[in-house]
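Protein in question kept underneath.
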Amino acid sequence: MVIQKLEKSSKEEMRTLFKQCFNSMFDSQSFDWFIDSDELWRYIWGVKKDGVLIASYIAYEGEVKFRKIPFKINFFDGVVSKPGERGKGMVREMLNHHVMIAENDSIELLLLDPFKTSFYEALGYTTAIDMAKYEIPFELIRKPESKKMGYEAFSGFISESEPLQKKIREILKMDWEHANYNPMKIPDCYIRKMLMSKLHQTCIFEENGIPRGYILYTVENRVLSIRRIIYFDIEVIQALNHFIYQYKDQVDRITMDFMPDDLPVHLLCSSMRAGTKEVVKTKKPSRMIKIPDIEKLLRKLMTHSEKSLPEFLLTVEDPFIEKNNRTFWFRDNQMLTVDDRNRKGDIDHIRLNISDFVPLFTGYSSITEKYLQKKISVNNGTSSGWNQYAIPVILREIEFLLPPLQTYSTEFCY
């Protein structure tokens, strides 16, 4: 198996492969423009058999913020292998091959959205971002207390309105600067492709001409489906309540997919349950992450920390990337690399697998949670019971510095 970098001359082969593997249309004008974009082709690799493309992936370059810190990333998209050629380890080999590319290009994180979580866990990826889906019978939608919406609402099909497209770009820029959740910068060819879509509408909420949030949505078969949301204050949710209520004679049900887990949905509803009607919430673990170089990532976290670290030893175990199997000595706000066998002194020693570190890094899980699950050991000992009051002092100090956070991907995507 030879993994080779693909050039733009392979774009028709990729189109054919995508058609064979994905339930989507790839003959549209927007896809033609997208696949012809130069910025897309920096990280496209594949496998050919007898001159025919049988597997490929796109790993576009971008940035994402965790704990308000920007990290350089490769995000895997269009990971595909031809039916009849699957089960031969091609995807595994391609993604493992990309770890070396990422290291050479100083990529700090590898990200993807899984079609099957267990498949990518076996490749060293860990779920690190949460999302939620809500289904709301329209009978439970709150009737707005005031006839005035507050924020102005501007809605329409994105592809048909340059002003709406401009406002969306403003919101994405503001979102990156505020970083309320986990904003991501993606190549402009992706944004422009989505702006050309004729399927989705947007509603943008403004205050004195300044965007304060937006939704992407469709209305079909008496269902109002909201696919994405960005909001900078609670007034956007109140304005959204007004917007939804205008559909009282047109839809029977509201679905809100790819939403933050802490979305104040109760502000949209008069009741969460009434008789046989109820709001149904489904948690959707979403984005998965792999860390190519744990030492670089830890040093970057320390650089951005505004608090002093306690002294302790940290041993990270990584069954997928050998160089990540390291012990680090944190002392006087410095990080030293040490050989665990030669350590001296009575210093707290924490051990964990890198798959348990990833959700701590993003805020998806807490150190307390991982310790109670026996995923973290302190001085060669693990939790003796399910008792959140019996957490070692060193872990409490680190959790104060690295608290759990609400995670949510806010990039412009359908």
